[in-house]
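Box 3.1. Reading complex inputs
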Amino acid sequence: NAGVTQTPKFQVLKTGQSMTLQCAQDMNHEYMSWYRQDPGMGLRLIHYSVGAGITDQGEVPNGYNVSRSTTEDFPLRLLSAAPSQTSVYFCASTVSGTTGTQYFGPGTRLLVL
Amino acid sequence: AQKITQTQPGMFVQEKEAVTLDCTYDTSDQSYGLFWYKQPSSGEMIFLIYQGSYDEQNATEGRYSLNFQKARKSANLVISASQLGDSAMYFCAMREGPYDYKLSFGAGTTVTVRA
């Protein structure tokens, strides 16, 4: 099992550009989520999904869009990048009905100029 | 209001000694779960240990143990016999409710192990 994979590892964007951060898992986990990590603030939840076709907003959803067409994939779209979205983005997944331990991908470091 | 509070921004510990990382939480749910994650300088998030609110015993995983004091709403991580590889950022996190997997994270504590 590859676990949770994320691409790209690093990306530089200009203000106003859009892009998609990819996340995939091969563990058949129903629950997937996106977090951002900023210095001194821990991780904050952006969006999450409890299964294919079902998504919902987390704590900081503005400026981001998600969809979940398959169990395996959960892409995060930045609609119009802003410098405030410079951060490290983590995707995570877990099996529903258990302790809820989430397993994280390696992260994507995003710099918006 | 902050749901997870980690009051120690940074700590130094001597190799082979034990270190305790503080975590307090705030929730009105009866069913919740508490987690500790390690983030080394390479950046990945590594799951260390889990404690459920109804678990009567403190969780242990190898050199990691969780000192769970429910009445005080604290879930401190104890790392015994520290190793140089334990140098990392440590995050406390909580999920609330039996079927809700959203995590709230603390700001983290940086641990530096000295030889």
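In summary: The two ends of chain A are 36 Å apart (CA to CA).
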